[in-house]
């Protein structure tokens, strides 16, 4: 499906979602890797744990995504050596934005969603475009199924615009289990209608006690 | 003098709008996308007849437009046709040939033959030079025996013991090439067709949802709609969703007063008859 001889990108599909709660954050992504009409693997993780309190989910071109995650992990290690502490989630958010804009004229084909806990322990979600424009929000979806999922999240989470309130207060009042239930249902629905989303769902929950991982089987067709 | 545009069309493709379409494309105007079925369709010949199979997903680009559409079309009581390609094209061409076959049955007084359907399809598709994007697997049983054919959008045909078409054809053909043999029984034939369609459903992103099967034998046809349903929804929220008033913010409210207008129609003829009667009586 290459458009020109010199087209250097490939879209491997997939969807990522993150929801911020009062004292937790849910980050989820499907595990299907595809190219054109083919499935390359049903079991590929799009989620990278950068710190104890910060998790990045990316969809798009997996070659660029692997490179991006590796880059950020290396930068974080340097930070830990220099500052004797882990990076906070907002700091990681800024770093990711700078990393993406650094390649403004040959971008990472990556659609990112960064989720975690901020310095006060509240859930925070940052959503990005391919060249580093970012914003702190209460929830976000990126990837091939994002257009199917965002309207549902807008309706169910209905967090007021971060322009009206400070962004850190735009978190959902839902409990952790309710948010995970919503994420599972929303992915099951997106799988029905998006051919690039499916196989398995990886759900990562970050709260004060650490990072917890959970899986849900999705439709494999 | 009769202008060119006044002559009746002789059939075939009319190239009148091609210059204008090219001009629009050059200006950057996008043609609206067709809905393709992005499909897996198969057919095989067994001991007593033919078995046809199809998946049930219709896609519009990366989105599933229909999760349970019917791709096995009726041509005649003893002939069915699976269609891949543009959904409107497969539907229209099979309906058209099905009507033509029925008229032919009335004219001849005989059961339709598969080669008749084949010739009607191929000549129609050829005259449209591939612009009617219909790739078909045609199968049936008539007085001359069981037949299975593939028909391509440009109008070429093949006669085969087993066939697959659509985006999932490679996945399905890998199953057929491994497991097909001559003289399969009915149960073996159905199982093999279902396995081939499932290969397409799970390994091809353009195919999905359920398996439809159609078994045609001498004197009997069984259309097994949704023979297998291997893809149930994996999760349903037990909490459910409630949409209370006020969940969607109301930005502007505008009240428009609507007045009903009554129109009285006087029954003119009844009036005249009544007046006539009155005149007689006077």
From TrEMBL, chain A:
Keywords assigned: Cytoplasm, Nucleus, Proteasome
Entry GO CC: cytoplasm; nucleus; proteasome core complex
Pfam (any one): Proteasome
Superkingdom classification of source: Eukaryota
Main location: cytoplasm
Subcellular location: Cytoplasm; Nucleus
InterPro entries for this protein: Ntn_hydrolases_N, Proteasome_bsu_CS, Proteasome_sua/b, Proteasome_suB-type
Single GO BP term: proteolysis involved in protein catabolic process
Family: Belongs to the peptidase T1B family.
Function: Component of the proteasome, a multicatalytic proteinase complex which is characterized by its ability to cleave peptides with Arg, Phe, Tyr, Leu, and Glu adjacent to the leaving group at neutral or slightly basic pH. The proteasome has an ATP-dependent proteolytic activity.
Quaternary organization: The 26S proteasome consists of a 20S proteasome core and two 19S regulatory subunits. The 20S proteasome core is composed of 28 subunits that are arranged in four stacked rings, resulting in a barrel-shaped structure. The two end rings are each formed by seven alpha subunits, and the two central rings are each formed by seven beta subunits. The catalytic chamber with the active sites is on the inside of the barrel. Component of the proteasome complex.
Name the UniProt record assigns to this protein: Proteasome subunit beta
From TrEMBL, chain B:
Keywords tagged on the record: Cytoplasm, Hydrolase, Nucleus, Protease, Proteasome, Threonine protease
Pfam families linked: Proteasome
Family: Belongs to the peptidase T1B family.
UniProt record, GO biological process: proteolysis involved in protein catabolic process
Gene Ontology terms: cellular component: cytoplasm; nucleus; proteasome core complex
Active site: 39
Originating species: Rhynchospora breviuscula
Catalytic activity: Cleavage of peptide bonds with very broad specificity
Official protein name in the record: Proteasome subunit beta
Subunit-structure text: Component of the 20S core complex of the 26S proteasome. The 26S proteasome is composed of a core protease (CP), known as the 20S proteasome, capped at one or both ends by the 19S regulatory particle (RP/PA700). The 20S proteasome core is composed of 28 subunits that are arranged in four stacked rings, resulting in a barrel-shaped structure. The two end rings are each formed by seven alpha subunits, and the two central rings are each formed by seven beta subunits. The catalytic chamber with the active sites is on the inside of the barrel. The 26S proteasome consists of a 20S proteasome core and two 19S regulatory subunits. The 20S proteasome core is composed of 28 subunits that are arranged in four stacked rings, resulting in a barrel-shaped structure. The two end rings are each formed by seven alpha subunits, and the two central rings are each formed by seven beta subunits. The catalytic chamber with the active sites is on the inside of the barrel.
Localization in the cell: Cytoplasm; Nucleus
Any GO MF annotation of the entry: threonine-type endopeptidase activity
UniProt entry tagged with the keyword Mitochondrion: no
Gene3D superfamilies: Glutamine Phosphoribosylpyrophosphate, subunit 1, domain 1 (3.60.20.10)
């Amino acid at each position: 499906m290459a458009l020109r001889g010199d087209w250097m990108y490939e879209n491997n599909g997939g969807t990522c979602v993150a929801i911020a709660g009062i004292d937790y954050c849910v980050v989820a992504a499907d595990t299907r890797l595809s190219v054109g009409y083919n499935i390359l693997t049903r079991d590929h993780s799009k989620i990278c744990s950068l710190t104890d309190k910060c998790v990045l989910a990316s969809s798009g071109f997996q070659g660029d995504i692997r490179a991006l995650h590796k880059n950020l992990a290396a930068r974080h290690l340097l930070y830990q050596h220099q500052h004797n502490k882990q990076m906070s989630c907002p700091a990681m958010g800024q770093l990711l934005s700078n990393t993406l804009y650094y390649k403004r004229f040959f971008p990472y084909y990556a659609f990112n969603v960064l989720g975690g806990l901020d310095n006060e322990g509240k859930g925070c979600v940052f959503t990005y475009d391919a060249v580093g424009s970012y914003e702190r929000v209460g929830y976000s979806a990126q990837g091939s199924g994002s257009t199917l999922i965002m309207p549902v999240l807008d309706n169910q989470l209905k967090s007021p615009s971060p322009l009206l309130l400070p962004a850190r207060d735009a978190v959902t009042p839902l409990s952790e289990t309710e948010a995970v239930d919503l994420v599972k249902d929303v992915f099951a629905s997106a799988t029905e209608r998006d051919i690039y989303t499916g196989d398995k769902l990886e759900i990562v929950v970050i709260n004060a006690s650490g990072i917890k991982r959970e899986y849900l089987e999705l439709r494999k067709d | 003098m009769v202008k060119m545009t006044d002559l009746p069309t002789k059939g075939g493709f009319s190239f009148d709008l091609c210059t204008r379409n090219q001009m629009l494309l050059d200006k950057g105007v996008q043609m609206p996308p067709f809905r393709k079925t992005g499909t897996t369709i198969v057919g095989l010949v067994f001991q007593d007849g033919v078995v046809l199979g199809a998946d049930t997903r219709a896609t519009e680009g990366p989105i599933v437009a229909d999760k349970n559409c019917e791709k096995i079309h009726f041509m005649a009581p003893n002939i069915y046709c699976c269609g891949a390609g543009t959904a409107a094209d497969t539907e229209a061409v099979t309906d058209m040939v099905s009507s033509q076959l029925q008229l032919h049955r009335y004219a001849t007084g005989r059961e339709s033959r598969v080669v008749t359907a084949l010739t009607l399809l191929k000549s129609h598709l050829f005259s449209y030079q591939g612009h009617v994007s219909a790739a078909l697997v045609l199968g049936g049983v008539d007085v001359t025996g069981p037949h299975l054919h593939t028909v391509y959008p440009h109008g070429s045909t093949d006669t085969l013991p087993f066939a697959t078409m659509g985006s999932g054809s490679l996945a399905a053909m890998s199953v057929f090439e491994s497991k097909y043999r001559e003289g399969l029984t009915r149960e073996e034939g159905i199982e093999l067709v279902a396995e081939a369609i499932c290969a397409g459903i799970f390994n091809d992103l353009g195919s999905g949802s359920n398996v439809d099967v159609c078994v045609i034998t001498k004197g009997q046809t069984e259309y097994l709609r949704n023979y297998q349903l291997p893809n149930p929804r994996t999760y349903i929220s037990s909490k459910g969703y409630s949409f209370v008033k006020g969940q969607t913010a109301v930005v502007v409210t505008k009240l428009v007063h609507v007045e009903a207008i009554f129109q009285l129609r006087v029954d003119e003829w009844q009036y005249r008859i009544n007046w006539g009667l009155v005149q007689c009586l006077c």
